[in-house]
Amino acid sequence: AIRMTQSPSSLSASTGDRVTITCRASQGLNNHLAWYQQKPGKAPNLLIYAASTLQSGVPSRFSGSGSATDFTLTINCLQSEDFATYYCHQYYSYPWTFGQGTKVEVK
Amino acid sequence: EVQLVESGGGLVQPGGSLRLSCTASGFTFSSSWMSWVRQAPGKGLEWVANIKQDGSEKYYVDSVKGRFTISRDNAKNSVYLQMNSLRAEDTAVYYCAKNIAVGQFDYWGQGTLVTVSS
Predict the structure, then answer these.
(1) pLDDT tens by residue, A78-97
(2) Residue of A nearest to B111 (CA)
């Protein structure tokens, strides 16, 4: 199985900050990589797919980049509603796997 | 509006069985791959299984192979997860999710809690 390693596991930030979360895959994904946001008690919400394509309805302050094994989710000008946990997800090969999550907390 | 509504969760003893259901609306169900994803209490997300539009292809995470079976009924806009030989480590919120093609999940249900305990 492809192992997905996110870093950091958690971070503290303030409203207005720029936040970067990285995801490293144990093998190349051919850009079959998605990012999700999850708030407590809620289902995840798709932000980015194909490594860098913004899902419809997602604010443009979210962006994704990277290729092969190294990927990044960037949140520009962090808003109060962005404090949540973020997961990367590879759908390149079975079994599909997720990163362990990155919790973005209030500083 | 796309809606996915799960049901069937609950408390079950180790070794027992449970069948989860997910009823979809707001999109062409028969044209979509569908998946189950679970999340143990306080833990991350784990993909469990998915099924092709016509049910001809099914894939599972290794930890549930031989115990769980995913199926669908396109006439009822529903996908199911039959869970047998349940273990404590299967305790989780189980989400039904719609796939974009064979890939990312663009819509999720609210989840149903399965607790395996004596």
Answers:
(1) 999 999 999 999 999 999 99
(2) A43
